[in-house]
Write a structure and sequence with these properties.
Keywords: Antibiotic resistance, ATP-binding, Cell membrane, Membrane, Nucleotide-binding, Translocase, Transport. The protein is of the alpha/beta class. The chain folds into 2 domains: 224 residues, Rossmann fold; 70 residues, YebC, transcriptional regulation domain (Alpha-Beta Plaits, 2-Layer Sandwich). It has 11 helices and 14 strands. The strands form 3 sheets. The protein has a 6-stranded mixed beta sheet with strand order 6-7-8-3-9-10, sandwiched between helices. The chain is globular and about 75 Å long. Bound molecules: adenosine-5'-triphosphate.
């Protein structure tokens, strides 16, 4: 459904300035029917990739085929076949959901009657009929995000691109949006989404590409990616400031594969055998006069995959 080869985008602030490389040669191969996630921190190049794939931004170099059409030569055909939900959506608080959906249908050239019929069908499908006549300013964040997705489906696309579909939502609203995304997939639509939430990538995506500094560091199913990270993790909570101080000493130990201060109080240690290394770690911290507040043994997560693939944790970026 999407194939890209060495897709690249530079931005130049002025003629003389060095270009900023937002996307640095991305190769993607996304199959029909997949939910594919681009996982990366702010500034990784996810939005720029989405904007290129939706024809909103021309690539500096590289090639891509989207929904069966060449991204550079058949822009209109690409646009007809895809839906795009931008970060934060674009609905007007003073309008009603029905009005927004009808307007979008008219943008795609539908008659008034066809646009209204389609609007009602989508409202029904997204369980938004009851609120459809109320101004959007009175809606919850989760409802508005679901409407954004419904708007992205107005032209019955084969592929929908969702840029950070749940950023800023509370956990309950996020779960609502996830359910809607799963339903869209069940109906046969391919989905490409961006996220900086590890849990979202893990729960929702069939395959994930880890994006960092404009490049893809790893691609695979969440389980495949986790399987590539051997060993266990030990997460210890320490007094404020201690993780950064003790991490170098922990890294020197023969049983330690890596250690990072995730934040001011949390130290994450990578080991081959967690149950054995716990005793060694506690002994070491004791010898460094560092009291342990809590300790948890963990199996590899996408967080660990991110760290291994990029050299830094996602959360700390
Ligand atoms: N129009 C622009 N002009 C100059 N630099 C830009 C422009 N758009 C993006 N960039 C830069 O390109 C890099 C990638 O930005 P991009 O928005 O694609 O990242 P992202 O992963 O989508 O992050 P976010 O989640 O914040 O949108 C950043 O360093 C950004 O500052």
């Amino acid at each position: 459904m999407i194939t890209t080869h060495a897709l690249r985008r530079e931005f130049r602030r002025s003629r003389r300035a060095e270009p900023v490389v937002a996307v640095d040669g991305i190769d993607l191969n996304i199959a029909r029917g997949e939910v594919f996630g681009l996982l990366g921190p702010n500034g990784a190049g996810k939005s720029t990739t989405m904007r290129m794939l939706t024809t909103l931004l021309p690539p500096t170099s590289g090639t891509a085929t989207v929904a069966g059409h060449d991204l550079r030569r058949e822009r209109a055909a690409v646009r007809r076949r895809i839906g795009f939900v931008a970060q934060g959506g674009g609905t007007d608080s003073a309008e009603t959901a029905r009005a927004e959906l009808v307007m979008q249908g008219r943008v795609f050239g539908m008659s008034k009657a066809a646009a209204l019929a389609q609007a009602n069908e989508l409202l029904d499908r997204f369980s938004l009929t009851e609120a459809a006549g109320r101004r959007l300013g009175t809606w919850s964040g989760g409802m508005r995000r679901r409407l954004d997705i419904a708007i992205g489906l107005v032209n019955r696309p084969e592929l929908v691109l969702l840029d950070e579909p749940t950023t800023g939502l509370d956990p309950a609203s996020r779960a609502e949006v996830w359910a809607e995304i799963r339903a869209v997939r069940e109906a046969g639509t391919t989905i490409l989404l961006t996220t900086h939430y590890l849990e979202e990538a893990d729960e929702l995506c069939d395959r994930v590409a880890i994006v960092d500094k404009g490049r893809i560091a790893r691609t695979g199913t969440p389980d495949e990616l986790k399987a590539q990270v051997a060993g266990d993790g030990i997460v210890v909570t320490l007094p404020p400031g201690a993780p950064g101080l003790v991490a170098p000493a922990v890294r020197e130990q023969a049983w330690c594969r890596g250690a990072d201060a995730v934040d001011d109080r949390t130290l994450r240690v990578y080991v081959d055998d967690g149950s054995r290394a716990v005793t060694d770690l506690l002994r070491l911290l004791d010898s460094l006069s560092t009291p342990v507040v809590t300790l948890t043994l963990t199996r590899p997560s996408l967080d660990d995959v991110f760290l291994t693939a990029t050299g830094h944790p996602l959360a700390a970026v």
